Amino acid sequence: MIDRNAPIGVFDSGVGGLTVMKEIMHQIPSEKVVYFGDTARVPYGNKSKETVTKFSRQIVHFLQTRNVKAIVVACNTASAYALDELEKEVEVPIIGVVKPGAKVAVEATRNGKIGVIATEGTISSAIYERYIKELNKNVNVIEKACPLFVPLAEEGLWRDPVTDEIARRYLTELIDIDIDTLVLGCTHYPLIRETVGKIMGEGVTLVNPAYETARELKKLLEQENLLREKEPELGDNQYQFFVSDASEKFKRFANSIIKYGILSAKTINIEEY
Amino acid sequence: MIDRNAPIGVFDSGVGGLTVMKEIMHQIPSEKVVYFGDTARVPYGNKSKETVTKFSRQIVHFLQTRNVKAIVVACNTASAYALDELEKEVEVPIIGVVKPGAKVAVEATRNGKIGVIATEGTISSAIYERYIKELNKNVNVIEKACPLFVPLAEEGLWRDPVTDEIARRYLTELIDIDIDTLVLGCTHYPLIRETVGKIMGEGVTLVNPAYETARELKKLLEQENLLREKEPELGDNQYQFFVSDASEKFKRFANSIIKYGILSAKTINIEEY
């Protein structure tokens, strides 16, 4: 029996998942949320399936100690590599960001050519292609790893000639193939959305899975009768943040994404879970 | 009683330390070496002192299970944050890359103005300044964190207009201050040495601590009577590589630094140590 007033658990390799957290805060504002960012072991995007699955499993164990009623894997690489395994292991509903992103992309395309940009891990898993093809097997999916986008976003170069130049190199082949829809398949990428949009041109729809993930989560909680019954009260600690490493850089960057009490994030030893 | 025929242990957050390993292979070619790269948790450069120390301690425990006769902390951030602690905890000689780098820099400068470029962790520890001032308190030390150099080097953009542009931004203030010596205070930086040299100009001496670290190691082994007595024999596994994550990216990048059997690196679960 799951407690509908329990918090939702959200996790990411670091702070990128805060872009998903933010959408959840907007779309289902009565919910309590426990966020975990694996800042000691970030990034996941260039690590193996085994490692990402092991790390994700430890985090799920941690979230279970907080009695979460549902789990959101707010990291594309972890969704790509670990979600299938995790689904078998947990009792509560668990969703990733990839399936919702794939769904919107299929709805958005008109010419049947969808581009996906993401980390090396997500791209090599080919998971976006798998989900997109399940929804419409006639769609063409062109995937491109963009490993420098995360460090550039983390350095705050959201609008910068260097980011323009790197984006041009990564995206040229997607432009040449004439895609009309582009999935921002890494939670950091919405931060450089303006640059990507400028390079791709106005005819290309940019899909941000964060928004759709929050929508899917809301729908799922409704279906399972798990939406919170009452507004959280003052002193209820509606949003709690946990990290595996409390670096200054994390705090600065987290505060540039979301303004809610990140400075009070608690550090835990994730390897113990 | 330390066995002088035992291997030397070398570790880094990832593959950057292979630049130090390479120098050891050149300068003391009879020695056996066990290398560990913490590829599951790389990078260390933007993580806290507590986390870097914990990770480094686990790695030292692992190296001790391989009965190493000496340990080289081939990572500037780990040397900066963890070496003082580790020295108290291990019986065998342990050296980092910072002190040797500081020494050469002091010997090299003529105008008494030394620049240090490194990760955010190394710079915020101010360890280069501390060691340099211990050697000569009249030297001025100007430190600058260059967080994008590691991802750019890992993407192979060693000679590229983007790396030029980023280097120009980081280094301008060091040029303005008129330093005559620049420490490459991160094991990745020798890979972009050419770019850094071009921006700094011919009058500036670039110091690569890897070379000096191997020299110091050799001297230390001599002093302690720990140099290996005989040449390793065929089938002796002179060089052994261990990693915490066996990603494809690691293999590709490692092979671009060093050519010796990296493909046969063994993966271990470092969290167990």
Structural class of chain A: alpha/beta
**What number of domains of chain A?**
2
Tell me what the CATH architecture of the largest domain in chain A is.
3-Layer(aba) Sandwich
Oligomer: homodimer
Average pLDDT score of chain A: 94
- β-strand number of chain A: 10
CATH class of the largest domain in chain A: Alpha Beta
Number of helices of chain A: 11
* Rg of Cα set of chain A: 18 Å
Describe the strand arrangement of the main beta sheet of chain A, using strand numbers: 4-3-1-2-9-10
**Spatial shape of chain A:** globular
Distance between the termini of chain A: 23 Å
Task: Indicate the low-confidence ranges of chain A by residue numbers.
Answer: none
Largest interface comes to:
A-B, 30 and 29 residues
Helix content of chain A: 40-55%
Top keywords for this entry?
Rossmann fold, 273 residues, four-stranded parallel β-sheet, homodimer, alpha/beta
Question: What would you say this structure looks like, in words?
Answer:
The structure is a homodimer of 273-residue chains. Chain A is α/β, with parallel strands linked by helices and 273 residues long. Chain A contains 11 helices and 10 strands. The first copy, chain A, has 2 domains: 8-96 and 211-272, Rossmann fold, CATH 3.40.50; 99-209, Rossmann fold (3-Layer(aba) Sandwich). In chain A, the strands form 2 sheets. A 6-stranded parallel sheet of chain A has the order 4-3-1-2-9-10, with helices on both faces. A 4-stranded parallel sheet of chain A has the order 6-5-7-8, sandwiched between helices. In chain A, helix 1 crosses helix 10 (209-223) and helix 2 (49-65) packs across helix 3 (76-89). The two termini of chain A are 23 Å apart. The A-B interface holds A 39-41, 46-48, 50-51, 55, 120, 124, 147-148, 150-152, 154-155, 161-162, 165-166, 244-249, 267, 271 and B 39-41, 46-48, 50-51, 55, 120, 124, 147-148, 151-152, 154-155, 161-162, 165-166, 244-249, 267, 271.
